[in-house]
Amino acid sequence: MTAVLSIKKQVVKTSLTALIIALIVSSILGYLAIKHEVGELFDATLIDNTRIIKGVIDSEHTTQDWSDLQNSLDETLLEHIDRTDQRFNGHAYEKKIAIQVWSRDGDLILRSSEAPKHALAPLKEGLVKFNGDDYNWMVYTVWLPHKHKWLAVAERSDIRQELSRNVEASLLVALVIALFCSIGLLKIQLKKAFAPLVELGQKISQRDFNDLSALELPNSPGELKPVINELNDLFQRVDCSLEREKRFLADAAHELRTPLTVIKLQVEQALLQPESRQTILERLLESVDRNQQVVEQMLLLARLEAGQMSVHTTTVIFSALIREAIAQLMPLAFKRNIEFQLDVEEVTMNGDSALLLSLLRNLFDNALRHSPNNAVISVKLFKQAQMIIFELIDSGVGISPKFLGEVTGRFTQGGGSDVGSSGLGLAIVSEIAHLHRMKLILKNHEERGLIVSLICKNNI
Predict the structure, then answer these.
(1) Interatomic CA distance for residues 160 and 373, integer angstroms
(2) Contact 188, 160 (CB under 8 A)
(3) Which of 97, 216, 305, 323 is the most exposed place for a label (fewest CB within 10 A)?
């Protein structure tokens, strides 16, 4: 498994690599630029010196002979004197110049001590480079019109290269010093920049596992604030999840404690009264069925509230789901002689058929439980403009006005008679309706019963 470097080490490594590459590239480009500019400068100086020498030698008023000029060159250029000699008073970067004077016929008339006896360049005007045995030369040749001679002034190229190398070495040393200074400053700045992240880690590590309060880092940088916000949001979600679990356990304990006690008493009664055992077992079976329904509804509601129910949206025929839900509850309706009166249009919508069926079954079960025997339950489904409207009207006593806004909560009864309702049906309906972007409206009928309305936009 490949080891993962820390962010700090990665930043230092990347920055160091970038700085070294920049140093190498800048050194190469700097050396080439310096070499070019030094060459241009020396070429211009060579041409200027040649013109000065030409002006002295080629003057119409100059009458000395060539031997005098030769002696003057030997004394002036001092090229025969070693740098270690005490008579040497030059400079390390002084230009090593060679001078030659040639006749029109190609005879060497005059040369300085470092100049070879052969021509350094073709006898024609211009600036050329000459590669010698010991040194390379830059040669500038001009014609002396008054003396009718060729003047060639040459300069050794090694002085140029030495100067270019020394300047580049100085720049390189400065760049290396700047590199180390930059690395030091980078480490200091990284330590300062990562301090809030280290502080965040310390705050999290020092927390009790039950502490889900929001993190507070007032001096955190902008890049760290999204992380802190997401962590706080995560803490809030975990806190809500824990609260849901606590509420579920409390609800389960509250809702199942009494039924289990009743079942135990019924079993004991059946054991003590063999003659009434059949009646007691029938009541016991009804209690088990009711508790099974409560448990299933509690689990479904817990999953809905926790967001664990995945909505598989397909095209469903809502009117067909209504008929299917009623068909599942028809045995209970026949038992109490309750009639469903349908006024249902064929309506198609996008939704989760299983969840929508559960919604309808809970609504119809709630209406059956709160309607008296021989009652009529009205069911309507129609389109109005771009909306789909579902209405369910039972024949019960309705909901007390003080509970009308709270009846969709867990285990909340509507203030009417309790006919075996778990108090979870409308809570499940509310959650499923919310998932399908349906608006749930509850209101009492003017005469008798409860009107349940579901309104949603036609999404097909």
Answers:
(1) 116
(2) no
(3) 216
Calpha distance 48→54 (Å, rounded): 10
Tokens of 337: 């002689």
Rounded Cα gap, residues 272 and 278, in angstroms: 13
> Residue 248 has what pLDDT?
63
- pLDDT value at position 389? 92
Angstrom distance (rounded) from CA 174 to CA 171: 5
- Give the alpha-carbon dihedral of 285, 288, 289, 295, to 10 degrees: 180
Task: Encode burial over 101-125: b for 16+ CB neighbours within 10 A, e otherwise.
Answer: bbeeeeeeebbbebbbeebbbebee
What backbone torsions phi and psi does residue 417 show, to the nearest 5 degrees?
-70, 140
- Cα–Cα separations (whole angstroms), residue 83 to 88, 92, 116, 356: 6, 9, 21, 105
Residue 215's pLDDT is what? 81
Please tell me the predicted confidence (pLDDT) of residue 446.
Answer: 80
DSSP secondary structure string for all residues of 364-409: HHHHHHHSPTT-EEEEEEEEETTEEEEEEE--S----GGGTTTTTS
Report the SS3 class of residue 438: coil
Q: Report DSSP state, residue 109.
A: E
Residue 309: DSSP 8-state: -
Judge whether 114 and 96 are in contact, CB under 8 Å: yes
Query: Distance between CA atoms of 331 and 354, rounded to whole angstroms?
Result: 21
Kind of pairing, strands 439-444 and 450-457? antiparallel
Helix (H) or strand (E) holding 203: helix 157-205
pLDDT averaged over 10-residue windows placed end to end, the chain, 460 residues: 64 82 84 82 84 78 62 58 51 67 85 79 86 80 87 83 80 83 83 81 80 79 82 82 69 61 76 79 74 67 64 86 88 88 90 85 87 91 90 84 59 48 70 84 84 84
How far CA 402 is from CA of 194, 266, 413, in Å, comes to 56, 36, 11
Provide the whole-model pTM: 0.47
The β-bridge relationship of strands 97-103 and 149-156 is antiparallel
Q: Are 284 and 322 in contact (CB under 8 A)?
A: no
User: Angle at Cα 424 formed by Cα 300 and Cα 398, nearest 5°?
Assistant: 145
